């Protein structure tokens, strides 16, 4: 068996995340690994298995899924494929006289995963997921995908090049029709904005018009402060009219996360990347309950509450700072309000003042920006 492994940083293939993101200190070992195994070879055909592994802690590949591409060094063609398919067959006219047409004759084939429920004779082990690869922390059993193919021609591995392209949706957002969204919830009824697109490009996704123009809104509400504990409520709202977010996750960086006592209705896992420093955690929905954020509307949100123990050595409510330092949704950075906009508690506050200020915390919104 002969193999070649290519390790690619996740940020190099996403269309929604800024290309300036080359390294993430919260996930320093993250990568996407592509493994190419040549099972058997002769002068005419090569049986190949290609495996994709998502070794990222909290970023996953969402719909429409991964798209894998490479450049053949010579005149190789794909005769058969199982567990995936090429998006274009290409020009196979040279084979018409033989009566047998290859699956793909493209010099640079683009391969996509098959959908669940594909015919059994088209499947292979660990295939047919419709593109979604979850993060290793969220679900290791669903963090890999595999397909097989039969390649015609002698593959020259010295000149073989395999540039990889993954897609996480279509770039750009535009306002859309806010159907089923009560006007009282978002103020005045958001307008409908028409935006023209290049006919050769995929259309932008549609979100509810708002000042921030972002598809996801995260609301951090300090709900109650007890003597030894405090409670925070988190609400994630989907403002994307045309999209459901499946198996979403949210990463929070907060100094008091090392003292999480209980999390209600969400899954929670700490992400201690640097030894004893445990100020980062990942939350995601419970399967078949709230692991999908449905299209914008009454069901387009998910909520949880966390109970955290107060540790004077690492965290207090001094100056009223009860908010996270960073928040990411599906790996995308959230826009944090300027520090001057945060409500604060005075150092010596009465019970009444404290209660009113904590209630005011509920007006803080953290907006996710898709680059």
Rounded to the nearest angstrom, the radius of gyration is 24 Å
What amount of the residues lies in strands?
25-35%
Architecture (CATH level 2) name of the largest domain: Sandwich
Name the assembly state: single chain
CATH topology of the largest domain: Immunoglobulin-like
Task: Give the proportion of residues in helices.
Answer: under 10%
Domain tally: 2
- What separation lies between the terminal Cα atoms? 41 Å
Biggest sheet overview: 10 strands, antiparallel
Task: Tell me the number of strands.
Answer: 22
Inertia-based shape: elongated
Helical element count? 2
Instruction: Name the poorly predicted regions.
Output: 1-21, 159-163, 165-171, 178-200, 347-371
* Name of the level-1 CATH class of the largest domain: Mainly Beta
Average residue pLDDT: 75
The strands making up the biggest β-sheet line up spatially as 15-19-12-11-22-21-20-14-17-16
- What is the ordering of alpha helices and beta strands? EEEEEEEEEHEEEEEEEEEEEEHE
Classification by helices and strands: mainly beta
Keywords: Glycoprotein, GPI-anchor, Lipoprotein, Membrane, Signal, Transmembrane, Transmembrane helix
Organism: Xanthoceras sorbifolium
Transmembrane segments: 353-370
Pfam families: COB_C (PF25079), COBRA (PF04833)
